[in-house]
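Record type: monomer structure entry
Structure origin: computed from sequence
Chain ID: A
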Amino acid sequence: MFLRVLLCCCVGLLTYTAAAQTSSTASADAKVLAPKKQLQALRITEGIKLDGVLDEAMWQQAGIATDFIQNRPNPGPPEKHKTEVRVLYDDANLYIGAVMHDVSGDSILRELTARDNFGNTDFIGIFLDTYHDKLNGYGFFVTTGGVQMDCRYSPAGGEDFNWNAVWDSRTSVKGTDWVAEMRIPYSAIRFSQAPEQLWGLNFMRQRKRDNQAFFWNEVKPAVDGFVNQWGTLEGLRDIKPPLRLSLTPYVSGYVNHNPLNDEGTRRTTTSFNGGADVKWGINESFTLDATLVPDFGQVQSDNQVLNLSPFEVQFNENRQFFTEGTELFNKGNLFYSRRVGATPIGFYNVEAGDNEKIVQNPPETRLLNATKVSGRTSKGLGVGVFNSVSNDVYATIRNTETGEERRELTQPFSNYNIAVLDQSLKNNSYVSLINTNVTRFGRTYDANVTGGLFRFANKKNSYAVDGRIVYSRRRGYFFHEEDLVDDQDGYKYQVGISKISGSFTWGVNHGIESHTYNPNDLGILFGNNNISQGIYGNYNHYKPFWKVNNFYSYFGLDQSLLYRPTVYQKTNLYGGANTTFTKNFLTVGFNFDVNPINRDYFEPRKEPLGDYYVRVPANANFGAFTSTDYRKKLALDLNAGIRGYKEEDRFERPQRLGIGFGVSPRYRVNNKLNFRYSLDWSTNRNQIGYVNPSSGDNGSLSSKYPEDARILDEFPEAVLLGRRRVVTVSNVLQAAYTFTNRMSLTVRTRHYTSTVRYLDFARLAPGGEETLVDYTRNRDNTFNAFNVDAVYSWWFAPGSQISVVWKNAGSTFLQANEATPLYFDNLNNTINTPHNNSVSVKILYYLDYLAVRPRRA
């Protein structure tokens, strides 16, 4: 019945979509680019005092960009409260002066946040497409409180706020208006040496009081693309790209407290580090970024989880060097930056012999340096080269009787390299070539991946074809082994065609990943050996109707086969929709998916794939969420979902069921202080899965345990599955206090616990056959993780920062009788377990050659 209800929902959604598409009264030009506006920039010879007051005479002489068009919540109408923006320039800087008219001073919201964070506030932004290729651009924003945000726009990275530039701004509130003044040095952007420049240009204003956003040159949500919908900035003459050379040296100091007091180790250690980041503009198009002896000890802690899946956990990248200006290197998703400086490849193979113990086994590879060169020519050719080098990593093992120590290599000296060519084409199109390479010294293997990508859209930007083909190559021996790697050559391809503009869009795609395709040395892949095809559609209604501001929906059907052997894997029907109510800005939505009987070939962890699989009964999921208005002091996000499974028809077994919910309130005390809390809870009852290894075991069954040995004696190739209940709870509390627009303090605390209780066990045979077995070994386990990250940050000068960070981290993995399903017992256990503590201070000072060079007489 549950499946029937969801199928009816899907049919209803498709019917509504077709009807809405047919009866739509939207104007015929809703998916046609708006006319391009032009603005003349005015050259000045006198200086501008950056104070948020446009009292210099030059501001009154400049052309005015006004008559903004609303983009949300109702696309199309002109703004009621005028915005006036002017642009000046000289030999070194671009100046933007903006006046935002309003009803009264009380209508101008002005929450303070940390840099690059939008809060409950108004802002003004300028967008620049300096090569006018209609694909790539810059964005600079400033809020009423003077908080700066900057980002890059590209087909690969979308809107990337990890990019940071050094620029300056001031704001002020004058009666019923607020004023912003910005100075963007040419060293912060890239452009050609043409004597007369033509740049893409747009401005954006957010008026938070009414949740409204406006653009100077209209941006239509039904049109594919963003940069291609900007106007133009004219009148830029005789400006030259400056020498872009800056040095940001750093010094840092750490005090680390280790709770363990093993013989020969100290609980408290100190360390001092020094290095530098260098940025050099090779020419007007290309920039070299290098970090020498980098220190990433202050980045936010990873959200550790209990991983029961056959695939690795993908963590977010928090290191600024690997998040800033990397849009070219992320083309094709072949680069997973956490591989650089990752856990050594031999970390888990270190073993202590008799009368030995492991004294030291570094979990991370320390980098010696990292360098990237990237840019785009005036002809639209993007070029990127990334290179990083890591040193040898050793584990130290000590003989407990003699005290002698030996070292074991866990990571050889390695070089990581990426090269990218990306040619922008007309009509929001491109072709790209990417190569990634890992070279390791010594007797092990090297890896190389080469990929080509393309996207071609028609002149009306209404349809597009896209695709990619990738070849992976690995040569050499497994680390510390005599066997050659067995996935030496592999490939992947994908091709699709889609309708990309209008209220109704759709697409079809097909792809193959061969059984030996492996990009994981510098990328990430969750299972290869796959043939997939799918069809999807979206219907979006952007105009207000009834009692809502908009309506967004999606639906699709995916199907996949195993590549070798070519056998069925799974089918998935999915869909969802969301809308926002007009009066109270309450957002609600739902999602669903329906799956017939599927085969999971990866869960048994048996190679080669094809013989063993876990049979997953037909199942369906329904989820819903709601989010209240963030303008209110108290706002709330809620979500919930349930997945039901058809009863097992092969033998008696309780039905599976998955339930989860999340609640996340946020409270803004005032414009400086806010709190956010999130609770996520889920339970999976009667889940069937591979019995994960215990600590120190290589597989689910180990002959050192009598119960396991009994099964292995009778069935040497046995795979043990367990019926289990998994309960996971995550709590995150974050408090932020922003002293000024350049100084902030953030404290984030996270507690995570996941408990697994096994109810019975089955032996998996080829062909998906399961046989219940009498197995009494206790395989229950509980994982707890606790983290505190406290960060004080002060941008005391443009590009210069002092940060003080305190980290507290601890985790426990409880097995068998130690495991407990009680949350507060786990919380108490986690808090009382000794934690690692680290306090660090880091000082960055930005030195710009243009500012420190000797002045000519």
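Annotation 1: Confidence is low (pLDDT under 50) at residues 1-27.
Annotation 2: The longest strand covers residues 743-765.
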